[in-house]
Amino acid sequence: MPAPETVLSVRDLAVRFGRSGVRAVDGVSFDLGTERLGIVGESGSGKSTLGRAIMRLLPNAAHVEATTLDFDGKPLLTRPEREMRTLRGNRMALIMQDPRYSLNPVLSVGKQVAEAALLHAKIGKKDAYAKAAEMLARVRIADVERVMGLYPHQISGGMGQRVMIAMMLLAKPRLVVADEPTSALDVSVRGDVLNLLDDLVRENNSGLMLISHDIRMVAAFCQRILVMYKGRVVETLTKLDEAQHPYTRGLIASMPDPRNPVRRLQTLDRRAIDAMEART
Ligand SMILES: Nc1ncnc2c1ncn2[C@@H]1O[C@H](COP(=O)(O)OP(=O)(O)OP(=O)(O)O)[C@@H](O)[C@H]1O
Known about the structure:
It is found in: Cell inner membrane. It holds the Pfam family ABC_tran. The protein is of the alpha/beta class. It is about 40% helix and about 20% strand. It has one domain (about 10-105, about 150-280): Rossmann fold (3-Layer(aba) Sandwich). The protein has a six-stranded mixed β-sheet, sandwiched between helices. The radius of gyration is 20 Å and the shape is globular. The mean pLDDT is about 90. Adenosine-5'-triphosphate (ATP) binds near residues 43, 61 and 213.
């Protein structure tokens, strides 16, 4: 029986696309507590597939297997889709790269945050708009009245992520999966969005999976990092200078270092990485 603070328990999770397809996720195991866990890897390493498998949001062509995939101590893989929909709207939340795809395009920002308030804050219609305005101010949107009247296509990516986080402050999810939540944003607002995400998970005692290709950003924000290569976890780190695997070192060397921006970036030495993987 997992400890009460275990949000998610994953053992031997594997995902295949198509009958004979390669394993996009291959034997991944980890526990997530009420912590910030980073999932990093290059493009195609299986990060998003892992996040979506946990949310049960993969297309039908995906075959998902695991010896354990428990959320709050209960198995996820056998839950009916109806239950999953309820879970996703309440206890589990997904933040994607472009928030405009997660927001309802035909509802104004004010209306959709007010609907979230009606659903989760157990208040009447009259108070829902006031609550929505309060939440939008909490995510540091300055001109709340104006923004409430806008539609998702009229707001910036950074504003969209703030609106998503405002709705999650109402839903109080136990698990937040954030898949590249800042990669489409201007550098100037990335830090603000990460800080809001931090407030969200701290306030609700949630577990956070932060998926990103940017190992430096993840290391600055998360307490633990799983490094993925070809669907497998090759290394778990708490700090970048613990990295032993040539792939992890390659990922670090291939990302710009804000303290040393003129350094020449390296490319991955795939021969060394594959030789190391063949030994394990
Ligand atoms: N719907 C799908 N059908 C078939 N193959 C897929 C599907 N989704 C992902 N894959 C494959 O699974 C592997 C892992 O992809 P995934 O998107 O999880 O990687 P990623 O690390 O998140 O990369 P990126 O950062 O580019 O999104 C890739 O080889 C990809 O082509």
